[in-house]
From TrEMBL:
SUPFAM superfamilies: Galactose-binding domain-like. Coiled coil: none annotated. This is Probable allantoicase. It comes from Actinomadura sediminis. Pathway: Nitrogen metabolism; (S)-allantoin degradation; (S)-ureidoglycolate from allantoate (aminidohydrolase route): step 1/1.
Amino acid sequence: MTEQTGTGFTALPDLAVRTLGGSVPAASDESFEEKENLINPWAPAFHPERFGPKGQEYDGWETARRRGPGHDWALVRLGLPGVIRGVVVDTAWFKGNYPPHASVEACRADGYPGPAELAAADWVEIVPKSPLKGDAAHEFPVEAERLFTHVRLNMFPDGGIARLRVHGEVVPDPRLLTGLTIDLAALENGARVVECSDMFYSSPDNMLFPGLARNQAEGWETARRRGPGHDWALVRLAARGRVTLVEVDTTNLKFNAPAEVAVRAVRPGDGDRAPLHDVLPRTRVQPDTRHRFRVPPVEASMVRVDVHPDGGLARLRLLGELTPEGERTLTTRWDALTAS
Protein backbone atom coordinates (compact mmCIF):
# COMPACT_ATOMS: atom_id res chain seq x y z
CA MET A 1 0.00 0.00 0.00
CA THR A 2 1.26 3.48 -0.86
CA GLU A 3 0.30 6.31 1.47
CA GLN A 4 -0.51 9.62 -0.20
CA THR A 5 1.20 11.57 2.59
CA GLY A 6 4.69 10.64 1.31
CA THR A 7 6.94 13.62 1.84
CA GLY A 8 4.85 15.85 4.08
CA PHE A 9 3.21 18.94 2.66
CA THR A 10 4.75 18.47 -0.81
CA ALA A 11 2.42 15.49 -1.34
CA LEU A 12 -0.53 17.92 -1.26
CA PRO A 13 -1.72 19.58 -4.48
CA ASP A 14 0.13 22.64 -5.77
CA LEU A 15 -2.63 25.24 -5.56
CA ALA A 16 -0.70 27.67 -7.76
CA VAL A 17 0.30 25.46 -10.70
CA ARG A 18 -0.84 26.52 -14.16
CA THR A 19 -2.65 23.22 -14.87
CA LEU A 20 -4.95 23.88 -11.90
CA GLY A 21 -5.73 27.41 -13.07
CA GLY A 22 -3.00 29.44 -11.39
CA SER A 23 -1.74 32.68 -12.94
CA VAL A 24 0.80 35.45 -12.30
CA PRO A 25 -1.04 38.71 -13.01
CA ALA A 26 1.73 41.12 -12.02
CA ALA A 27 5.41 41.45 -11.09
CA SER A 28 7.74 44.32 -10.32
CA ASP A 29 10.12 43.32 -13.12
CA GLU A 30 10.64 40.51 -15.63
CA SER A 31 13.47 41.91 -17.73
CA PHE A 32 15.24 38.59 -18.33
CA GLU A 33 12.59 35.87 -17.92
CA GLU A 34 8.80 35.94 -17.68
CA LYS A 35 6.96 35.79 -14.37
CA GLU A 36 4.62 33.07 -15.71
CA ASN A 37 7.47 30.54 -15.63
CA LEU A 38 7.11 30.42 -11.83
CA ILE A 39 4.03 28.20 -12.08
CA ASN A 40 4.97 25.89 -14.96
CA PRO A 41 3.98 22.31 -14.08
CA TRP A 42 7.19 20.64 -15.27
CA ALA A 43 10.54 20.52 -13.48
CA PRO A 44 12.85 23.42 -14.40
CA ALA A 45 15.14 22.71 -17.34
CA PHE A 46 18.41 24.29 -18.46
CA HIS A 47 20.22 24.32 -21.80
CA PRO A 48 23.64 26.01 -21.52
CA GLU A 49 23.87 26.60 -25.26
CA ARG A 50 20.68 28.67 -25.42
CA PHE A 51 21.35 32.41 -25.51
CA GLY A 52 18.85 35.02 -26.65
CA PRO A 53 19.02 38.78 -27.14
CA LYS A 54 18.80 39.23 -23.34
CA GLY A 55 21.49 36.66 -22.52
CA GLN A 56 21.34 33.12 -21.12
CA GLU A 57 17.82 31.69 -21.24
CA TYR A 58 16.44 30.27 -17.98
CA ASP A 59 13.28 28.32 -17.21
CA GLY A 60 12.15 30.63 -14.43
CA TRP A 61 11.48 34.25 -13.45
CA GLU A 62 14.50 36.57 -13.58
CA THR A 63 14.65 40.30 -12.94
CA ALA A 64 17.22 42.94 -13.85
CA ARG A 65 20.05 43.86 -11.49
CA ARG A 66 18.59 46.35 -9.02
CA ARG A 67 20.79 49.43 -8.56
CA GLY A 68 18.59 51.28 -6.09
CA PRO A 69 16.54 50.56 -2.96
CA GLY A 70 13.61 48.14 -2.75
CA HIS A 71 13.09 44.56 -3.88
CA ASP A 72 11.33 42.56 -6.58
CA TRP A 73 8.01 40.74 -6.21
CA ALA A 74 5.54 38.60 -8.14
CA LEU A 75 1.80 38.31 -7.51
CA VAL A 76 0.27 34.82 -7.96
CA ARG A 77 -3.43 34.02 -8.10
CA LEU A 78 -4.06 30.51 -6.82
CA GLY A 79 -5.93 28.33 -9.28
CA LEU A 80 -7.56 26.55 -6.34
CA PRO A 81 -8.10 28.61 -3.17
CA GLY A 82 -7.41 26.75 0.05
CA VAL A 83 -5.41 26.32 3.23
CA ILE A 84 -1.68 26.59 2.52
CA ARG A 85 0.41 23.96 4.32
CA GLY A 86 3.80 24.70 2.76
CA VAL A 87 5.68 26.64 0.10
CA VAL A 88 8.64 25.60 -2.08
CA VAL A 89 10.91 28.32 -3.48
CA ASP A 90 13.09 26.64 -6.11
CA THR A 91 16.20 28.37 -7.49
CA ALA A 92 17.06 25.47 -9.84
CA TRP A 93 19.84 26.39 -12.32
CA PHE A 94 20.19 29.90 -10.89
CA LYS A 95 23.72 29.63 -9.50
CA GLY A 96 25.24 33.11 -9.79
CA ASN A 97 22.06 35.12 -10.14
CA TYR A 98 19.72 33.86 -7.40
CA PRO A 99 18.32 36.18 -4.70
CA PRO A 100 19.96 35.79 -1.28
CA HIS A 101 16.61 36.06 0.54
CA ALA A 102 12.88 35.60 -0.11
CA SER A 103 9.57 35.86 1.72
CA VAL A 104 5.97 34.97 0.90
CA GLU A 105 2.73 36.76 1.81
CA ALA A 106 -0.86 35.60 1.28
CA CYS A 107 -4.34 37.11 1.25
CA ARG A 108 -7.98 36.23 0.61
CA ALA A 109 -9.94 38.34 -1.83
CA ASP A 110 -13.49 37.65 -3.00
CA GLY A 111 -14.40 37.85 -6.65
CA TYR A 112 -11.81 38.55 -9.32
CA PRO A 113 -9.77 41.59 -8.24
CA GLY A 114 -6.96 43.02 -10.34
CA PRO A 115 -3.42 43.82 -9.15
CA ALA A 116 -4.26 47.40 -8.13
CA GLU A 117 -7.14 46.23 -5.92
CA LEU A 118 -5.00 43.48 -4.38
CA ALA A 119 -2.37 46.03 -3.32
CA ALA A 120 -4.80 47.16 -0.63
CA ALA A 121 -5.72 43.64 0.52
CA ASP A 122 -5.05 42.28 4.01
CA TRP A 123 -1.72 40.53 3.38
CA VAL A 124 -0.36 38.03 5.90
CA GLU A 125 3.28 36.92 6.00
CA ILE A 126 3.29 33.12 5.77
CA VAL A 127 7.03 32.70 5.08
CA PRO A 128 9.29 35.27 6.78
CA LYS A 129 12.33 36.69 5.01
CA SER A 130 14.56 33.63 4.73
CA PRO A 131 17.99 32.90 3.22
CA LEU A 132 18.20 31.08 -0.12
CA LYS A 133 20.90 29.07 -1.85
CA GLY A 134 21.52 28.80 -5.55
CA ASP A 135 20.25 25.81 -7.54
CA ALA A 136 18.22 24.43 -4.63
CA ALA A 137 14.61 23.75 -3.63
CA HIS A 138 13.75 25.41 -0.30
CA GLU A 139 10.79 23.98 1.62
CA PHE A 140 8.95 26.22 4.09
CA PRO A 141 6.10 24.75 6.19
CA VAL A 142 3.20 27.14 6.77
CA GLU A 143 0.96 27.32 9.81
CA ALA A 144 -2.03 29.52 9.01
CA GLU A 145 -5.48 27.98 9.39
CA ARG A 146 -7.08 30.40 6.95
CA LEU A 147 -8.37 30.41 3.41
CA PHE A 148 -6.14 32.18 0.87
CA THR A 149 -6.71 33.07 -2.78
CA HIS A 150 -3.45 34.88 -3.68
CA VAL A 151 0.22 34.86 -2.68
CA ARG A 152 3.00 37.38 -3.20
CA LEU A 153 6.57 36.17 -3.62
CA ASN A 154 9.19 38.72 -2.56
CA MET A 155 12.87 38.34 -3.41
CA PHE A 156 15.58 40.50 -1.91
CA PRO A 157 16.83 42.39 -3.74
CA ASP A 158 16.62 40.82 -7.24
CA GLY A 159 17.63 37.75 -9.26
CA GLY A 160 16.06 34.54 -10.50
CA ILE A 161 13.66 31.96 -9.07
CA ALA A 162 12.69 28.94 -11.17
CA ARG A 163 9.47 27.80 -9.48
CA LEU A 164 7.06 28.67 -6.70
CA ARG A 165 5.01 25.74 -5.38
CA VAL A 166 2.14 26.46 -2.99
CA HIS A 167 0.98 23.17 -1.49
CA GLY A 168 -2.21 22.90 0.47
CA GLU A 169 -5.76 21.66 0.88
CA VAL A 170 -8.41 22.76 -1.59
CA VAL A 171 -11.40 24.48 0.04
CA PRO A 172 -14.28 24.86 -2.45
CA ASP A 173 -16.82 27.65 -2.18
CA PRO A 174 -20.09 25.88 -1.29
CA ARG A 175 -22.06 28.66 -3.01
CA LEU A 176 -20.77 27.29 -6.35
CA LEU A 177 -21.64 23.65 -5.60
CA THR A 178 -24.87 23.39 -3.63
CA GLY A 179 -28.03 22.57 -5.55
CA LEU A 180 -26.15 21.67 -8.74
CA THR A 181 -24.89 18.57 -10.52
CA ILE A 182 -21.14 18.57 -9.87
CA ASP A 183 -18.11 16.31 -10.21
CA LEU A 184 -17.83 14.85 -6.71
CA ALA A 185 -14.37 13.45 -7.57
CA ALA A 186 -12.88 16.71 -8.87
CA LEU A 187 -9.75 18.01 -7.17
CA GLU A 188 -11.02 21.56 -7.68
CA ASN A 189 -14.11 20.65 -5.63
CA GLY A 190 -11.97 19.32 -2.76
CA ALA A 191 -11.66 15.60 -3.62
CA ARG A 192 -8.34 13.80 -3.04
CA VAL A 193 -6.76 10.38 -3.48
CA VAL A 194 -5.81 9.40 0.07
CA GLU A 195 -4.33 5.93 -0.58
CA CYS A 196 -3.37 3.81 -3.56
CA SER A 197 -1.76 0.45 -4.30
CA ASP A 198 0.83 1.82 -6.73
CA MET A 199 1.91 5.14 -8.27
CA PHE A 200 5.11 4.07 -9.96
CA TYR A 201 4.76 6.28 -13.03
CA SER A 202 2.52 9.10 -11.85
CA SER A 203 0.34 10.33 -8.99
CA PRO A 204 -3.26 9.11 -8.80
CA ASP A 205 -4.35 12.66 -7.95
CA ASN A 206 -3.71 13.40 -11.64
CA MET A 207 -6.92 11.63 -12.65
CA LEU A 208 -8.89 14.18 -10.60
CA PHE A 209 -7.42 17.21 -12.45
CA PRO A 210 -9.63 19.48 -14.57
CA GLY A 211 -9.72 19.28 -18.34
CA LEU A 212 -8.49 16.51 -20.61
CA ALA A 213 -5.13 14.81 -20.14
CA ARG A 214 -2.77 15.83 -22.94
CA ASN A 215 -0.46 12.82 -22.56
CA GLN A 216 0.15 9.74 -20.42
CA ALA A 217 2.05 11.74 -17.78
CA GLU A 218 -1.07 13.75 -16.96
CA GLY A 219 -2.99 10.71 -15.70
CA TRP A 220 -2.38 7.93 -13.16
CA GLU A 221 -0.35 4.91 -14.26
CA THR A 222 0.85 1.93 -12.23
CA ALA A 223 3.79 -0.44 -12.79
CA ARG A 224 3.23 -3.74 -14.60
CA ARG A 225 1.75 -6.24 -12.13
CA ARG A 226 3.54 -9.63 -12.23
CA GLY A 227 1.63 -11.36 -9.43
CA PRO A 228 -2.00 -11.87 -8.39
CA GLY A 229 -4.40 -9.12 -7.41
CA HIS A 230 -5.11 -5.72 -8.93
CA ASP A 231 -4.33 -2.04 -8.39
CA TRP A 232 -6.66 0.45 -6.70
CA ALA A 233 -6.97 4.01 -5.47
CA LEU A 234 -9.06 5.33 -2.59
CA VAL A 235 -10.74 8.66 -3.38
CA ARG A 236 -12.21 10.94 -0.72
CA LEU A 237 -15.00 12.82 -2.46
CA ALA A 238 -15.60 16.56 -2.19
CA ALA A 239 -18.30 15.74 0.39
CA ARG A 240 -21.05 13.21 0.79
CA GLY A 241 -23.14 13.00 -2.36
CA ARG A 242 -25.21 10.83 -4.70
CA VAL A 243 -23.31 9.60 -7.74
CA THR A 244 -25.43 9.21 -10.89
CA LEU A 245 -22.87 9.17 -13.72
CA VAL A 246 -19.36 7.71 -13.90
CA GLU A 247 -16.76 8.70 -16.48
CA VAL A 248 -13.67 6.50 -16.87
CA ASP A 249 -11.21 8.05 -19.32
CA THR A 250 -8.26 6.07 -20.75
CA THR A 251 -7.27 8.75 -23.29
CA ASN A 252 -3.59 8.47 -24.36
CA LEU A 253 -3.29 5.05 -22.70
CA LYS A 254 -3.10 2.90 -25.82
CA PHE A 255 -1.16 -0.14 -24.63
CA ASN A 256 -1.32 0.30 -20.86
CA ALA A 257 -5.01 0.83 -20.09
CA PRO A 258 -6.65 -1.58 -17.61
CA ALA A 259 -8.72 -4.44 -18.96
CA GLU A 260 -11.56 -3.71 -16.52
CA VAL A 261 -12.50 -1.00 -14.01
CA ALA A 262 -14.82 -0.98 -10.99
CA VAL A 263 -15.90 1.83 -8.62
CA ARG A 264 -17.23 1.00 -5.16
CA ALA A 265 -18.46 3.09 -2.23
CA VAL A 266 -16.50 2.35 0.95
CA ARG A 267 -16.51 3.52 4.55
CA PRO A 268 -13.88 6.15 5.43
CA GLY A 269 -10.97 4.31 7.04
CA ASP A 270 -11.77 0.93 5.52
CA GLY A 271 -9.33 1.35 2.64
CA ASP A 272 -9.27 -1.69 0.38
CA ARG A 273 -10.88 -4.02 2.92
CA ALA A 274 -14.64 -3.45 2.98
CA PRO A 275 -16.49 -2.63 -0.23
CA LEU A 276 -20.09 -1.59 0.44
CA HIS A 277 -21.97 -0.81 -2.76
CA ASP A 278 -21.12 -0.97 -6.43
CA VAL A 279 -21.17 2.45 -8.03
CA LEU A 280 -19.89 0.91 -11.26
CA PRO A 281 -19.55 -2.90 -11.24
CA ARG A 282 -16.49 -4.46 -12.79
CA THR A 283 -16.71 -3.32 -16.41
CA ARG A 284 -14.58 -3.85 -19.51
CA VAL A 285 -12.91 -0.69 -20.85
CA GLN A 286 -11.11 0.15 -24.09
CA PRO A 287 -7.74 1.86 -24.54
CA ASP A 288 -7.59 5.55 -25.48
CA THR A 289 -11.33 6.06 -24.88
CA ARG A 290 -13.68 8.16 -22.75
CA HIS A 291 -16.32 5.89 -21.22
CA ARG A 292 -19.50 7.32 -19.68
CA PHE A 293 -21.88 5.17 -17.62
CA ARG A 294 -25.18 6.31 -16.13
CA VAL A 295 -25.63 4.45 -12.84
CA PRO A 296 -28.39 4.07 -10.23
CA PRO A 297 -27.85 6.76 -7.54
CA VAL A 298 -25.37 5.64 -4.89
CA GLU A 299 -24.62 7.73 -1.81
CA ALA A 300 -20.95 7.94 -0.84
CA SER A 301 -18.28 10.14 0.72
CA MET A 302 -15.41 7.85 -0.33
CA VAL A 303 -14.94 5.43 -3.23
CA ARG A 304 -12.37 2.83 -4.26
CA VAL A 305 -11.39 2.68 -7.91
CA ASP A 306 -10.19 -0.78 -8.95
CA VAL A 307 -8.15 -1.28 -12.13
CA HIS A 308 -7.83 -4.91 -13.23
CA PRO A 309 -5.11 -6.00 -13.22
CA ASP A 310 -3.05 -2.81 -13.60
CA GLY A 311 -2.56 0.13 -15.96
CA GLY A 312 -3.63 3.72 -15.99
CA LEU A 313 -6.54 6.15 -16.03
CA ALA A 314 -6.36 9.61 -17.55
CA ARG A 315 -9.40 10.96 -15.69
CA LEU A 316 -12.13 9.83 -13.30
CA ARG A 317 -15.38 11.81 -13.07
CA LEU A 318 -18.21 11.05 -10.64
CA LEU A 319 -21.12 13.32 -11.44
CA GLY A 320 -23.92 13.78 -8.94
CA GLU A 321 -25.23 16.11 -6.27
CA LEU A 322 -24.35 16.80 -2.66
CA THR A 323 -26.55 15.39 0.07
CA PRO A 324 -27.82 17.80 2.77
CA GLU A 325 -25.10 16.39 5.04
CA GLY A 326 -22.48 17.07 2.38
CA GLU A 327 -23.68 20.64 1.90
CA ARG A 328 -23.51 21.27 5.66
CA THR A 329 -19.97 19.87 5.80
CA LEU A 330 -18.69 22.18 3.06
CA THR A 331 -20.50 25.23 4.41
CA THR A 332 -19.27 24.70 7.98
CA ARG A 333 -15.64 24.46 6.87
CA TRP A 334 -15.92 27.45 4.55
CA ASP A 335 -17.45 29.60 7.28
CA ALA A 336 -14.75 28.59 9.79
CA LEU A 337 -11.88 29.43 7.42
CA THR A 338 -13.29 32.73 6.20
CA ALA A 339 -14.45 34.06 9.56
CA SER A 340 -11.33 36.13 10.16
